[in-house]
Amino acid sequence: CRKAGCCDRCQAIRMFVGLCQNCTFLRKVENNKGSKFFLCRRSVEDKSFPKYPALPVVSCPGFKKLPPVSK
Question: Angle at the Cα of 52 (from 33 to 24), degrees rounded to 5?
Fold first, then answer.
């Protein structure tokens, strides 16, 4: 989630994923077994970006911040 003052679980996920968590190009993918993966949609058009980047991502030239959540 992207709420301010979020729960501990969401904050832990954010730390594990890193920069991608707040990127417009992130797509969360879950397989039939329940495993979760973080797909970089930039990789579709630009092959210099990894499809599934190593986490946590601490810097990325393709990062584009998500717009603020409307209240």
Answer: 105
Structural tokens at position 36: 């979760």
> What are the φ/ψ torsions at residue 5 (nearest 5 degrees)?
65, 35
Structure tokens at 67: 């717009």
The 10s digit of each residue's pLDDT in 31-71 is 999 898 999 999 999 999 999 999 999 999 999 999 887 76
Q: What is the DSSP string of the chain?
A: ---TT--HHHHHHHHHHBGGGGBTTEEEEE-TTS-EEEEETHHHH-TTS-SS--SSB---TT--BPPPPP-
Tokens of 53: 């980047």
**Model-level pTM?**
0.73
| C-alpha span between 14 and 8 (Å, rounded) | 10
